[in-house]
Hints:
The chain has 89 residues and is mainly α. The protein is built from two helices and no strands. The longest helix is centred in the N-terminal third of the chain and has 36 residues, at 5-40. The chain is flat.
Amino acid sequence: MAETPQQQKPEEEKDFSLLADFVKLAVLAWSMAILTANYLGVFKQSLDPTFPASLLTGTMAAMGVNVGRNGGKKKEEPKIDTKSAPAAK
C-alpha cells in the first residue's frame, strides 16, 4: 500500500534538516579555515577577509549564536540643547 503524503512529511523534513545542518557546518568550517589561514599569513597575497567573515557571522547567527554586547545599547549622556534654553541675563 502506498504511503500518503502526510506520513511522508516528517521523514523528508528530518532529511532536509540534517542536510541544512551539514551545509551550515561546512560553511562555518570553511570560513573559519580561510580566516585563520589569512591571519597566519599562509596566503602569499593579501586576501580580503570581508567575505569569509560575513559568512562566518551569518552562519553563526543562523545557528543561534549571538556575538556582541548583551547589555544592549550603551547609555548616552543627556545632551543639552543651547538653542532652546533661555539666555541668561
